[in-house]
Amino acid sequence: MDLVEAVPNFSTINSTIINQITNQIESYRNTYVLNIDINKTYNRTVITFCTPIHQILDVSVDCISLALELIDMRKHTGEHPRIGSVDVFPLIPLFNDKYNSLISISHKLSSIIGMKFKIPVFCYSKSAKSSNNYYLSNIRKNQYEGLEYSLSHNIITPDYGDHRFNPKNGAIVIGVRDILIAYNVNLISKEKSKANHIAKIIRSSGYYNSKNLHFTGKLQQIQALGFKNFHNDQHCQVSTNILDYKKSDSIFQVYNSVKSEASKLNINISGSELVGLVPKNAFNISVNKFPQFPFKNRLPDYIDYLGLNDLYTFDYSEKILEYKLSQYFDITQLYL
Question: pTM for this structure?
Answer without folding.
Answer: 0.91
